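Changelog-adjacent note: as of this version, every example in the card shows the full chain rather than a window. The one below runs 454 residues end to end.
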Amino acid sequence: MVQPERIKNLNEKPLKEGDYVLYWMQSSQRAHHNPALEYAASKANQLQKQLIVYFGLTEKYPEANLRHYNFMLEGLKDLKSSLIKRNIKFLVLKCSPNVGVIELSKRAVMVVVDRGYLKEQVKWRENVVKVIECPLVQVESDVVVPVEIASFKEEYSSATFRRRIKPQIERFLVPLKEVSLDRNSTSMELSTKIPEIPLEDIDEVLSRLEIDRSVPKTEHFRGGTSNALKFLDEFVEDKLDGFAELRNDPSLDHLSNMSPYLHFGQISPVHIALRVMGTESHSRDAFLEELIVRRELAVNFIHYNPNYRSLDALPDWAIKTLKEHEHDGRNYIYTLEELETAHTHDPYWNAAQMEMVLKGKMHGYMRMYWGKKMLEWTESPQKAFETALYLNNKYELDGRDPNGYTGVLWCFGKHDRAWKERKIFGKVRYMNANGLKRKFKIDSYVEDMRSIET
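Full-length structure tokens:
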């Protein structure tokens, strides 16, 4: 059963005569442990209707490129197979998501939608609410604790957020039962003027999309829930025990690699948490801190602060100290091209940049170091922020989401405290290469990235 706190009526329209219940799937791109899907399925059975799942694929999503579209389409192809096994028709239309759902809602008894937090995602739902003639029900499916339940305001730090969210976690960490549908919709005919996207040949689909092709797809991560679940099994069985002590070491591989799949909603954070909690590993709490507290702190920030793409979102002390040190002399100033192609004097930074460019995901500790150096090697904090955000969103599979924006801003003081004052950084936390050499076998990380490059 889906917890009522996850469910919100976005309008007050009554049920209308129609042929099906429509699930507008956008953020939660999975058939596995998806509260929005199970809620829609239960409503279809209750109303004795078929269930249709719709996804709108736009060619104009901000900053998305070939790498992102390929990963997402791999996931959608995997998803279609899962839905067919459950006797559910899956329709992918080439249009702005809100346009497709308005069209399909004309024959719908009601529409169910999952929840997104970015401005673009919120705007789609607002546009649909204005014109739809049947109920539109939102089910929050990509966090453990619904955002307003976790906190009623933007939280200052992980410490303040932790106190609010921890008492709520247990009641939302429950398995989700899969609903068996009474009626098969796979053969249902749906006529629409909007082009349907077949998913049998992803390369063919990609060749017909008018998208940015400047970033190639990566073979290091393949999209889809089935791949996400394989990564999760490998992590729990082989890496979880070392996670607490070794997760920050870029020369070792003790990460879950869940972030690309969480970004596209291809795996449930509740399922991940339950899988980890089912072990006796001493690293359980450390992992759940990252998965729930830190990840959902980022959602809290994006939801309550409209300036998440700006340095204005920083705490007052960080804005003040960066302004005071804005004109401090820099030993190195690099152009965007030099940074993007990893042509700096620092082999560790270059390796991190190449990991992101080649694999589509950078080690979390190196991402912090990478962002800090941007502040040190560009002419101003504003230029550093714009450059970091541009590169992160361009190459990372898990960029362009709450954790991506929050992670970049953390490098400039978000969700952190003031430290000892120094040149350029002011009171913003500082990181240097000596710290990497002292803590890790960092040269082996550099060699690993060079081997990938060659």
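Structural remarks: The domain at 143-176+225-304 is CATH 1.25.40.80 (Serine Threonine Protein Phosphatase 5, Tetratricopeptide repeat).
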